[in-house]
Amino acid sequence: MARTIPAGAKLVLASHNPGKLREIAELMAPLGVEVVSAGALGLPEPDETEDTFEGNARIKALAAATATGLPALSDDSGFCVAALGGAPGVVSALWAGPGKDFAPAMARVRREMGESVDRRAWFVSVLCLAWPDGHAECFEGRVDGSVVWPPRGGLGFGYDPMFLPEGGALTYGEMDQREKHATSHRARAFAKLVEACFPR
Question: Which is the catalytic residue, given 76, 101, 118, 144?
């Protein structure tokens, strides 16, 4: 049985990514927990040395939980393209460079796809909830869709403007947060997390 987080508890969001922090904070708002970001606490970003989303999510959550003595929630997520063998995947953020500029990262995806007619793509999110004693639990969400070019929309973040979810008419870059939360990989992982660790 999963460990649970009681109402009124304090939780660290182990991320320095403003887009992720905004999305996770909005998803967590109804749960009755106090959230504080790793950046606000002055925590450094740990090196993500694993080759899986789950491995890197564990690194971030455990680092924040150990440093603060509080439960910590992290997200490791990425954009995966079938024509690129699943790349950029776990290195999605690295493709954006140190300035986290995703315009050239999206252009690289399109360039490396070349003449491929396979437009299949998916987003994966792994949320990891860790405790100071080293216990950790992970939850994965995935949403399938396709690559669009040129990118559409100025909402969202990362690769959102070039991803069209299956059965949809709008890219994630064209959706407001409410619409995106209804289908996103992060929301799907979050639903599993809430069911297991935030029973109310």
Answer: 76
